[in-house]
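Exercise: predict the fold of this chain.
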Amino acid sequence: QDGRILTGFHKEDFRVFDERKEQPILQFAAEEQPLDLILLFDISGSMRGVVQEVAEAARQGLHQLQSGDRVCVMVFNSQSREIAPFTEDLDAVDRTIQDDVLGLNFGGGTLIQSAVSDAALRFRREPHTERRRAVLIITDNMGTRTRREESVVDEFWESDAILSGLIVRNPSFQAMRTIGVILAPQNLAMQAGMKGIAEKTGGDSLTANDPGTAFQEAMRRIRTRYSLYYALPEAKPGAKRTIDVELTRDAAQRFPKSRVRARTGYVVPNAAKPAANSR
């Protein structure tokens, strides 16, 4: 409840329900896995005033990456585009962010939902490996609604990826909110953000009081997850199914204020294979 990531759990501490029917957990993994990570940078006009904070945050956050991780860099405003393809060369990723991303002219609108959708779809072009798939979006979360949240969540489920967010505080918006100038746009923008999508994919979002520390924490949360595997029940390929993950009674009593964060569903694949769920 206080935002800490809890460790020390075992297979016996979890229960998994597929369409409300409990499923035996066949495999359990608590070790860190290599990442296939898309870094998605907001370069809209509202982010212009916090470019330096984002630059420093990105430099510190990359320290959380490890040998074997692969990173793709994308940017978005009114449209999204790929700046650099997946690579294990983390020094090249650093140069891409500092030179090719932060050197851009920040401007235009903020179509957050379309951008994270494009990032989820980007994974469709990559062979599926044992790496954990994740999108980390760096944004002030101020945007215009463009997509139904449900359809974007479906794309993340189909891509077997999670969405996490680093929300950068924007002093110019904070100043305007104090005099009530953009109260209505703020409400609209918050509805058009990424928090709800992230939660349904098993990810979460952090507000960056200290962008550098928050970036590192966001990367740590993506990497530090439990993986639960169970046999997929028979179902029609392409069907959507719900998942619920909860702690057993004993585990819940040990951590009474804890909350499980896991994807809330999946799309049945064409070829049957074990389903994984990450906390």
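Check your answer against the key: The longest helix spans residues 211-223.
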